[in-house]
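Researcher: I need the complex structure. Ligand is S-adenosylmethionine. Inputs:
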Amino acid sequence: MTESFDAVAYNRAAWDREVANGNEWTRPAGREVIDRARAGDWSVVLIGYRSVPRGWFPAELSGVEVLCLASGGGQQGPVLAAAGAAVTVLDNSPRQLDRDREVATRDGLAVRTVLGDMRDLSAFPDASFDVVFNPVSTVFCPELAPVWRDSFRVLRPGGILMTGFLNPDVFIFDVEALDERGELVVRHPLPFSSLDLPDDERERSYGTGPIEYSHSLAEQIGGQLAAGFTLTHFDEAPHHADATARYLPGYFATRAVRP
Ligand SMILES: C[S@@+](CC[C@H](N)C(=O)[O-])C[C@H]1O[C@@H](n2cnc3c(N)ncnc32)[C@H](O)[C@@H]1O
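Model: Output:
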């Protein structure tokens, strides 16, 4: 792959394929989950299968304007809408957004969907959301500074940014050894991108899946601080699906506020 590689175009098609292949992050919430959320019993995940602490959200969700950022798949957006929030889902994959519309139609929810790149939130005016909710997806985005800058801009003062992301250390390991034999073979210096691999190895290790970027903690946490956010909470969890889980947290999550 070349220097002029278009990550957004490639990953759009790749995530559309993930929907067709039934990737677990593309399977919409069931009707019973939505019914429970309507009754006030709801939870959403930012990292793996771990519920976000209720206290990370505003005490009252009714009428709160939430931007589910790169969060298609018919999961968090419809659940938050059923819990009373006014939800917009922005995602780069048309098929992922179809999932949100499917649930909204099935269960009579108002969910606005917007096709776009998480680095460009120009579809939204300044100070138009109370919460930006971003489950693990920055791993598919080549640069993060614009994501934090625009998230800050579209949040109202006092607004909350929640993001989940991969611990970059999981990228130092050889993926074939990890996935096929559960072995932790240290191989890649950071930063790493699956674009760095020869085409045949990337195909064996990642199949037709999206391109991934390790990103540093400086880009993730330092980037939020540089955009003007104040960090209020931090969480971590083992990766839900790989052998690194025995040794280190594969995921981090942050909650930050626009002062
Ligand atoms: C792992 S899924 C996250 C959504 C899922 N509901 C969840 O809980 O994990 C990653 C999502 O990020 C989206 N995505 C990847 N790159 C993006 C970009 N540059 N801009 C917007 N969305 C992007 C994908 O289309 C996909 O829906």
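Model: Summary of the prediction. The domain at 7-167+213-257 is CATH 3.40.50.150 (Rossmann fold).
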